[in-house]
Task: inverse folding
């Protein structure tokens, strides 16, 4: 009888753990259809850099692998001066169309590296190099490798809170599983006596 109760407790624990992992994976959604996300976490970012007076306008189009736009995303960027290596952080606002984000950046003529990252709901990054001429024209825009890891990248409160929530849930389930395992072992030793 005790063995059957122990197996039943183990099955119940496994069910709770799997449901919990589903909630973590879906970002903490309640039980039900929301446990299975509609899209994966990967996103594609297309960048357009155009001239404006005294700088450039950067437009990022963020979409899922299947082409659907990523809505209400936090889109951040890092701009690095190609000659001095100085960096500045950028935050993109909504571009008016679903999945479109824009920012205007005052820039001087020169060589520039721009890295744009979607950071809250999806993970996508795109890095480009471009030249801004003395006349204000953007040219020679090419996709390049990501900027070095030692460059500070911006974060948002939403992305930090989301990660804290995920790790809190993971640790809580780890403690729950450890507690149940210890309890099951204690009960099985008591049953053997």
Result:
């Amino acid at each position: 009888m005790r063995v059957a109760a122990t197996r039943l407790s183990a099955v119940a624990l496994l069910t709770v753990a799997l449901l919990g992992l589903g909630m973590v994976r879906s970002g903490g959604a309640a039980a039900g259809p929301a446990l299975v996300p509609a899209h994966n976490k990967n996103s594609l970012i297309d960048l357009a850099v155009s001239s404006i007076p005294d700088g450039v306008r950067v437009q990022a189009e963020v979409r899922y692998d299947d082409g659907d736009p990523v809505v209400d995303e936090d889109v951040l960027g890092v701009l690095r001066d190609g000659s001095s290596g100085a960096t500045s952080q950028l935050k993109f606002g909504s571009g008016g169309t679903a999945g479109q984000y824009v920012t205007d950046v005052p820039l001087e003529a020169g060589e520039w590296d721009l890295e744009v990252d979607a950071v809250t709901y999806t993970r996508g990054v795109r890095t480009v190099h471009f030249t801004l001429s003395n006349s204000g024209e953007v040219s020679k825009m090419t996709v390049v490798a990501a900027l070095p890891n030692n460059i500070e990248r911006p974060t948002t409160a939403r992305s930090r809170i989301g990660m804290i929530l995920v790790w809190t849930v993971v640790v809580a389930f780890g403690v729950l599983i450890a507690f149940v395992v210890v309890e099951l072992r204690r009960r099985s030793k008591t049953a053997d006596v």
